[in-house]
Amino acid sequence: MITITDGVDFDTVAREWRLKWSDKDCLAAVHKLASQYFDAIKATKGFKGPLNRVVCGGCLDYKLIMPFTAEAFGDFEASGFGPEQEFLAKVKEIPGVSSVETQTFTFMPM
Q1: Domain membership of residue 24 as a residue range
Q2: Are 105 and 3 spatial neighbours (Cβ–Cβ below 8 Å)?
Q3: Based on the structure, what is the number of domains in the chain?
Q4: Is residue 3 situated within a structural domain?
Q5: 37: which DSSP letter?
Q6: Is residue 28 in some structural domain?
Q7: Which of the 8 DSSP states describes residue 50?
């Protein structure tokens, strides 16, 4: 475990891809594109699983959360986060997609 401060330990680091979608056709296109990368993400060294998808119909959020072992995350980061740049470029081309962002954070069950 890595300790950030007393009582805040982690062994998992996650990468999140997130965006806003405008309607159900847009959401379907986003998910169809994202699903093309699921196998590659899951095959990445240190992938801890599961691959998590969050969809909010009220906020129109779509998020993919990819957990990795803390030890392997540096290699994933050094690789440019696997297929991230390709996915981000393609998803930005889908009509109705906005606010495309990424984030890295610790991810621990409590």
Answers
A1: 11-105
A2: no
A3: 1
A4: no
A5: T
A6: yes
A7: -
